[in-house]
Request: fold
Amino acid sequence: MQPQWISDHLCWTGVNQTNSHDLTPLPYNEDTIAYVVDRVIQVQDYLGQRILLENLSSYVTYQSSMMTEWEFFNEIARRADCHILLDVNNIFVSAHNHQFDPIDYLNGIDVDRVMQFHLAGHSYNGEMIIDTHDHDVCDPVWSLYESALKRFGAVSNVIERDGDIPEFRQLRQELAIAEDIASRTLSADALKMNAYSKNNEYLELDYGRTA
Reply:
């Protein structure tokens, strides 16, 4: 198989043979950048193609972090010469949890690095938002998606749904919202690009297939 791209989250998930069962953020500092870049380059050399790194939703921070998440993320992409999968919902969730402006995140990412967007729903757990993928995409995330389109242009998009999955008709209506936002935001020429052809719009369900 020769997939168009291969992606993975920029995170860690275990230590000392113990799995965290969650995507855990890394410390945002120079040592971590060097560590991750070296391994991304190894993977890309083995595969013979550039991979995509995806931002995650985060709930903790580190005292050893010396920069913002977007500065950290973007610097890794530059040094490793890899692409970015920008999860718009994850930006919204982390921005709420850590009190930063999500537009600053978008503006801090190089335009030519982003190859795909993700959209999803989330849940409130008191004052914290959890990235659960079991709700419809909410209006603030749609608004952030529009801002992402304005900055990055026509980019392939995936809507993720991992729980409380409704009938397909309702899922397709949600995808139609993304199509409508794109048609209102992007130029006619941009809409002709394959990123918004029917072959590049997906709903990702919990059983690992797309519809």
